[in-house]
């Protein structure tokens, strides 16, 4: 698990909570699999650029808000 993976997981959880979204809702909104969302929320898998784009678009956030850089 890298620091970047943990930042992404923390930021995803925060952004989802702000919207009142569950992991299931994130799966639907971002059009990614439930296992992908679970792995990302647990910081267990690095995200591809395509995944990050889908997640950022679904959340309607900036890259900075999502990645924390």
Task: Describe the secondary structure blueprint for this structure.
Elements: H1 3-19, H2 23-30, H3 34-41, H4 49-59, H5 63-67
Helix pairs in contact: 2-3
Please tell me about this protein's structure.
The chain is mostly helical and 69 residues long. It has one domain (3-64): lambda repressor-like DNA-binding domains (434 Repressor (Amino-terminal Domain), Orthogonal Bundle). 71% of the residues lie in helices and 0% in strands. It has helices at residues 3-19, 23-30, 34-41, 49-59, 63-67. It is globular, with a radius of gyration of 10 Å. The protein starts with a helix and ends with a helix.
What is the number of helices? 5
Q: Report how far apart the termini are.
A: 17 Å
Secondary-structure-derived class: mainly alpha
Strand content: under 5%
Low-confidence stretches: none
Q: State the total count of DSSP E strands.
A: 0
Mean pLDDT score: 92
- Helix proportion: over 70%
Give the overall shape, derived from the CA principal axes: globular
Number of domains: 1
Write the H/E string, N to C. Answer: HHHHH
**CATH homology superfamily:** lambda repressor-like DNA-binding domains
Can you name the CATH architecture? Orthogonal Bundle
Rg, please? 10 Å
* Main beta-sheet annotation: none
CATH C-level name: Mainly Alpha
CATH topology: 434 Repressor (Amino-terminal Domain)
């Amino acid at each position: 698990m890298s620091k970047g993976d943990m930042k992404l997981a923390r930021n995803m959880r925060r952004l989802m909570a702000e919207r009142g979204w569950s992991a299931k809702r994130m799966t639907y909104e971002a059009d990614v699999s439930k296992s992908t969302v679970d792995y990302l929320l647990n910081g267990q898998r690095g995200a591809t650029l395509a995944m990050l784009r889908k997640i950022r678009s679904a959340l309607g956030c900036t890259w900075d808000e999502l990645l924390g850089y």
